[in-house]
Amino acid sequence: MRQKKQRSNAAVNSRLIRRPIQRCFAIFLLPTFAAFCIGFLYPFIHGLYLSFCKFTTTSNAKWVGLDNYVRAFKDASFVHAFGYTALVAVTSLVIINILAFAVAYALTRGIRGSNLFRGVFFMPNLIGGIVLGYIWSMIFDGFLSRYNTSIVLNATYGYWGLIIMLCWQQIGYMMIIYIAGLQSVSDDMIEAAKIDGANGWRILWNITIPTVMPSITICTFLSLTNGFKLFDQNLVLTGGQPFTFQPDGTIIRSTEMLALNIYNTFYLNSNSRGMGQAKAVLFFILVAAIALVQLRATHSREVQQ
Questions:
Q1: 197 contacts 146 by C-beta, under 8 angstroms
Q2: How far apart are the C-alpha atoms of 278 and 51, rounded to whole Å?
């Protein structure tokens, strides 16, 4: 039986089979590469070019250099949206990962009906952002109507509404990743720690958490980037309201996040589309830099373990 298996592996890895694949790899690679160029690479490069132009349509773009970027940095609404987005992203990052890990830890303790609970907790992640925003806006407004207010009339309610909705949607997804990590913890290490006299908390902090650091890295990356990229829920739930007016006449949308700010800049005023494109490029650089720093920090923790 073993000899037969070795022969089959040798047949698969033989040069007679690998040589045609190596010769024709371009044919297999071409469709995927073409789709990548058409769907991502060309729009990205063209959008980068448009960020240095003034335009209302892409066919009449006029080069203006760094003027769009200067205007973007001077835009008070963009600066406010950046601070507000960072606050929402960091808060949701902490709450989502703590609760997701706690739920995953509880569901891997051998309780009855754990598979049912996993499915129930994961289901909110299957609901689209627009639908989710409408559902939660009705829930919040129904509750706040007792106090003669609405989620779009109070910035504090809007902030916590976004946090609650974001956590409700993503905790179940992160829970699945944490469960996969917790199931990889060696029972032998836990038994050895118990024999050495370690209690539950010491096992959790010194064995379980270090072992699931790869899962923590993935979940931290996903929750952080999802928090910064949040758009459709923000658009439907608050739309950036309530509004405040600066002394210079600038309108600040109190609950407006970066993605929504870019959308409003691009579509509400056709003369500011170049600035909106510049904001989008800055947004990409910001999210990519934060994601890379976070991955490096958490991955270094994995290596130490």
A1: no
A2: 4
Residue range 249-293, pLDDT digits in tens: 677 888 999 999 999 988 888 788 889 999 999 999 988 898 888
Read off the pLDDT of residues 77-97 as tens digits, 9 standing for 90 and up. Answer: 899 999 999 999 999 999 999
Asked if 50 and 58 touch (Cβ cutoff 8 Å), the reply is yes
What is the b/e burial string over 198-230, where b = at least 16 CB atoms within 10 angstroms of the residue's CB?
beeeebeeebbbebbbbbbbbbbbbbbbbbbeb
pTM, rounded to two decimals: 0.82
Residue 231 CA to residue 262 CA, distance in Å, equals: 10
- How far is it, in rounded angstroms, from Cα 301 to Cα 218? 13
Other C-beta atoms lying within 10 Å of the C-beta of residue 162: 25
State the Cα–Cα distance between residues 244 and 249, nearest whole angstrom. 10
pLDDT tens, position by position, 140-180: 988 888 888 889 888 999 999 999 999 999 999 999 999 98
